[in-house]
Amino acid sequence: MNSSAFHRTITLPAPVCAQAAQHLEHAVQRSIDGAATPWRAFRGADGDDVAFSVPVVEQAAGCLLVLAAESAQNLRPSALRALISVALHLRDAVEAVRRPPVTAGHW
């Protein structure tokens, strides 16, 4: 990973930010390592679309996936799907930013 990745941002819709903040709060309560930093970032999000640094979004996605794995036996299937959906949305956003651009020219 190069240093320019740390200066990139990802813009997320407000509903995704709100859901992520809610799930990250549960991760903080369960003492999942690394959940506090993204939770603070997501809970402070205001507006329609909010920009976050790539590492914060990546850390949030990882924490939510850990929360899903640790909570799988205790959550209703619909709640587990919602949690995993948010985590995968965040992970996909990170992958989209880090994916090299597609060139339109011929090789």
Describe the 3D structure.
The chain has 4 helices and 2 strands. The chain has a two-stranded antiparallel sheet. It is globular, with a radius of gyration of 15 Å. It has helices at 14-29, 36-43, 54-71, 77-98; strands at 9-13, 49-53. The longest helix has 22 residues, at 77-98. The two termini are 26 Å apart. The model is unreliable at 1-6 (pLDDT under 50). Helix 1 (14-29) packs antiparallel against helix 2 (36-43), helix 1 (14-29) crosses helix 3 (54-71) and helix 1 crosses helix 4 (77-98). The chain is mostly helical and 107 residues long.
Note the topology.
Elements: E1 9-13, H1 14-29, H2 36-43, E2 49-53, H3 54-71, H4 77-98
Antiparallel strand pairs: 1-2
Report, as a whole number of angstroms, the end-to-end distance.
26 Å
Helix content: 55-70%
> Strand order of the main beta sheet, please?
1-2
* Mean pLDDT over the residues: 88
Binned strand content: 5-15%
Reported for the largest beta sheet, the result is: 2 strands, antiparallel
- The SS-based structural class is mainly alpha
Q: Rg, please? A: 15 Å
